[in-house]
Amino acid sequence: VVAKLIKVNDRSSMTALEVTAGGKLFNVVVDTEDTGKQLLQKGDLRRRITIIPLNKIQSHVVPSKVQQATVRLVGKGNAELALSLVGYSEELKNAMEFVFGSTFVCKTTDVAKEVAFNREIRTPTVTLEGDIFQPSGLLTGGSRKGGGDLLRQLHDLAEAETKLQVHQKRFYEIEAKIKELQPLQKKFTDMKAQLELKMYDLSLFLKRAEQNEHHKLGEAVKKLEEEFEEMRSQIKEKEGCYKNCADTVSTLEKSIKDHDKNREGRLKDLEKNIKTIKARIQ
Fold it and tell me: How many other CB atoms are there within 10 angstroms of residue 25's CB atom?
């Protein structure tokens, strides 16, 4: 339908555009009248619809000289062709001209009156609030509850769908990347498991090495203690020998001294005996 085929450039103009299009917003756009006939005959439609065949529709667009006259009358930007306020695919141009090409959207009521009733222009106008001014003098206006809500909702829906498409595209890209990385993930998992196993083996090895080192140190300490005890025993034995030698030396020294003293007494005795013997001889 037309409402889903357009993009409103300025949200403030949605009410005016909705009024401009009226029921044409729900017209169904098809490429040819044949497609339209097939849709009517075989489409299993639940309600009446109006079809716009692009190859047959005859549109009426406000002539460029009238548009220029409008700009001269009220100034640029104060009254714009409704067609210029919507975006659409180039292939839909005929349908969009048919729906939006014959009405001006005006910023104020005064501008709308001036454009619609001007003899040089005489073109239907719609205000931003949705009031309609016909060159014939017919005026339509008043309360419009939810005016422009349809286009706003469709506009929001279109934006949401666009964002959804972007996110879906990103999702598919991520999904493809995940599939691409899955073999690497398996390889990484296997390598991680191997690494953890090697780390465990290393910890056991270090533990055993530490225990072996402690054992070796214990044996070395034990051996040193035994050697120390043996050396201490030898020292005691040497000390005993030294003491015995020292006692022996002391005894010998005493004996020598005693021998020296006795020798003097013996010599005196011998001299005395010699003298006695000589006397006897004489």
Answer: 19
How many CB atoms lie under 10 A from the CB of residue 52? 21
Task: With both helix axes pointing from N to C terminus, report the angle between 64-74 and 109-117 in degrees, rounded to the nearest 10.
Answer: 130
Which residues partner with 30 through β-bridges? 53
What domains are defined for the chain? 2-144 (3.30.70.1620)
Q: Which of 10, 24, 121 minimizes the C-alpha distance to 112?
A: 121
The pLDDT confidence band at residue 260, using thresholds 50, 70 and 90, is low
The pLDDT value recorded for residue 60 is 86
Within 13 Å of residue 99, how many CA atoms lie on the same side as its CB? 34
Cut 0.70: pTM above it:
no
Contact 8, 85 (CB under 8 A): yes
- pLDDT at residue 146 above 60? no
Structure tokens at 131: 């009031």
pLDDT confidence of residue 259: 65
